[in-house]
Design goal:
Number of domains: 3
CATH superfamily of the largest domain: P-loop containing nucleotide triphosphate hydrolases
Helix content: 40-55%
Order of helices and strands: HHHEHEEEHHEHEEHEHEHHHH
Distance between the termini: 16 Å
Shape: globular
Strand order of the largest sheet: 5-2-6-1-7-8-9
Strand content: 5-15%
CATH class of the largest domain: Alpha Beta
Number of helices: 13
Number of strands: 9
Bound molecules: guanosine-5'-diphosphate, magnesium ion
CATH architecture of the largest domain: 3-Layer(aba) Sandwich
Radius of gyration: 22 Å
Amino acid sequence: MDDIHAFAASIQRGDRAALAQAITLVESTRSDDRLRAVALLEALLPHTGGAYRIAVTGPPGAGKSTLLNALGCLLVKEGFRVAVLAIDPTSEVTGGSILGDKTRMRDLSLLDGAFVRPSPSRLAHGGVSTWTHEAMLLCEAAGFDVIFIETLGVGQGETRVKDLVDCCLLLCLSGAGDALQGLKKGILESADLIGINKADGEGLQVARMARGELQSALRMVRPDLSADDLLLLSGLEALRVEALWMHLAGWKEKRVNSGDFEARRSMQHEAWMWISLESRLWAALQDFKKNNAMTFDAVRQGTMLPERAAMVLKESFLDYLGVVHESP
Ligand SMILES: Nc1nc2c(ncn2[C@@H]2O[C@H](COP(=O)(O)OP(=O)(O)O)[C@@H](O)[C@H]2O)c(=O)[nH]1
Ligand SMILES: [Mg+2]
């Protein structure tokens, strides 16, 4: 355990190599790594929670990475320490490094006050998962003030980006036609703010129109969002990026003052516990199934009443849980 404390201390000192190594550790599914990861996170827990956690979601090509590059650089210039955890479904692992998002965020990744970490989407099916939550805690312990999560916003399973961050910015494409096009189900429900991106050059006019369309469409689906929550942006030309930050900062302040900020964090802590418990129980159940093939055969062949089988299986599953002590 001594080495865990030394590891934790290096992360708190802001040692980047240690932070990168810790994120690799939490991404691992090996059971010995899981135990170490949990011990490390526990050692760091008192030093977490201090960052403003923001998700940037939207379809591939919406300009998430480009916008984060511009916004991140602005924030670092203002003295903030900024981390970006990017889940890029289009990135490829080539010789150990991930191309794609990292190249879009080159300016930011070169700055001392920034940390950019792309992760392959196999870990989260394009959405977010336990590792994203854990990687975020590690970045907080390392002293980052603002943490951005770049994600498509929808993954498999029940894990939602809303369970992860304080504020969720959805970026829409403002091309011809419907601005809501390409948005998967559920993504609109998670949005706290909406950006209509690529509002630059000839795109500005199109973006203005998209904003109008979106405003009327949202009246039905998201009546809680006001016109002020729909922002015209350009990440590429860094237009209105400062206004975006003012909006994000104001949004946080309002929620801190109303108590909603803390309330959402508390709900999220509990949500992660349930997500983790459910996945453990599910894994145990899958394991248990392997040991009960005979009962399943009897049910399939019609020689055992399904209700009787369920009763027997429930009892023996509870016994099984009592004897399995393999914890992680
Ligand atoms: N005109 C314009 N193009 C942009 C803007 N932001 C991104 N792009 C372009 O859109 C493409 C996708 O950008 P990227 O940031 O990788 O999108 P992501 O998949 O959402 O991360 C790239 O070719 C960018 O150069 C913008 O604000 N304006
Ligand atoms: Mg990207």
